[in-house]
What we know:
Chain A: Keywords: DNA-binding, Phosphoprotein, Transcription, Transcription regulation, Two-component regulatory system. The complex is a heterodimer. By secondary structure, chain A is an alpha/beta fold. Chain A has a single domain (about 5-120), classed as Rossmann fold, CATH 3.40.50.2300. In chain A, about 45% of the residues lie in helices and about 20% in strands. The model of chain A has no long low-confidence stretch (mean pLDDT about 90). By secondary structure, chain B is α+β, with helices and mostly antiparallel strands. In chain B, α6 (about 70-85) crosses α7 and α15 crosses α16 (about 280-285). Chain B has helices at about 5-20, 20-30, 35-40, 50-60, 60-70, 70-85, 95-100, 100-130, 135-160, 165-190, 205-215, 220-225, 230-235, 245-260, 265-275, 280-285, 290-300, 340-350, 425-430, and strands spanning about 310-315, 320-325, 355-360, 365-375, 390-395, 405.
Amino acid sequence: MGKRVLLIEDEPNIIEAISFILSRDGWDVATHSNGHDAMEAVRVRHPDVVILDVMLPGRSGYDILNEIRADAETQTLPVLMLTARGQVKDREMAEEAGASMFMTKPFSNADVLNAVKELVA
Amino acid sequence: MAQDGMVGSRIRERRVAAGQRQAQLAKAVGISASYLNLIEHNKRRIGGKLLLDIATELGVDYAQLNEGAEANLVASLRYAAAEYPDVAAEMDRIEEFAGRFPGWARLIAEGQEAVQRLQRTAETLSDRMSHDPYLAASMHEVLSMVTAIHSTATILHEDQDIAPDWRRRFVRNINEDSQRLSDSAQALVRFLDGGADAADQSGSPQHEVDQFLQHHNYHFPQLESLEQTPDTLVAAAPELKSASARAQTRGLLRQYERDAQALDLNVLQDALGQEGLDPATIANRLNVPIGLVLRRLAVLPEDQQPKPLGFVVCDAAGTLLFRREVKGFVAPKFSAACAKWPVFEALTRPAQPIRRTIEVPGRDQEQFDCFAVSEAISTPSFDQPTLYHSYMLVVPRDARVTSPLLVGASCRVCPRQKCEGRHTPSVLIEGI
């Protein structure tokens, strides 16, 4: 079994596409589609890397990331943040919240795959 | 208008433009060429019949020479110079410049005004782009659809050996996302193309409410006379398209109806005539709450107001519930208003009237007297927090004060460099 990726994203067809390309590359992909209990999913699934959308129903990706960084068990977990906004301040917010990497939609499949590989290398 | 001391320069400029020699014009109006030379160099004052004769001879209006069509021009040049202090324009020769080179001066003034117009457009668009929740959600939707289609199409293109069931699934996904993208894009275009002046159109419920109130000039005689009810007024308002706008307007009109019954506008006018525009004194005289006086002053018909009045209402969360702008005082439509507005200060001291003189940034740096007070809108209880609304009447000042409270409209479009209240960078300082 490959390394575990937890994809937290609310768009079902983006979930399907990213899951496909990661699974095809040998990753063990779990998905979660809302912000409310995303932290619970992180704790239960013990992923090696998290792909986290910023705009989620119920809770923002920034809030979830803050909680990941505040938890001793997950504070070093690599997190790739995805957002539909690409302004400098969004990147700064992601960095301040502790994102390991930041990617703006629309992104290419290859970029996502390379980013995930880089984060767990 | 008094002479600005540059009449001679204007005479000279007009004479040269008319192709006349100094001696020729002097002779025509019965003075010596040397005396005209002194006049043209602003070393002799001129007026009365001689100026009229010169104007007639040059074929221009007397007023044009005496007052100068440049009065506004000079003001515009002063403003342009103040905007670019590093250029070190010769301020002491500004009138001479406008008089001698009116074309070039107009070009500078026009350029400055064009910059101002663009700046205002940028302020509006930036405010809208940054804070309009509908626009933000629409953009997110469009970008998410593009991402899904792009990602799925790449899989289909690059993986020729993909299993048939996956292929069917992805083709179906692309089809669904394409439809959603098309719908989202069309909705976005409709939203952005909502009017001739797209920069000022929002399509939001708040915008509908504002339009409705403006359409009625904030005054509803039908509610004053009880001939109609808030419900019938709202039902007959085509501009209130959304349920949210109708509900919001009903709430405002019900407050209006209660106020109208509590304080007749004729009574208020009488008190206004006796006491002047002093809300606290009027409230004491009539033995009514100050908030009521502020609300009733704000809905006086324009021709009955002692001067144009602005008014804002906010709740304890700082949300602006009502805005009536007055020239120079702008209430942001989407973003949070300036935290220094007295209407917010009033929330920190419920029922305590607050009077502040504020100065807003901009070309004229206008000053306003603000009368603010917050009052409970819910029944006090030991078990529930009391809810407050805060009211602020905005009155343009005639005379300036030297130490006003410096405020803005909202951080995003405020040029003030050092402000402890700033929470968002300004597009006027740092760009969009």
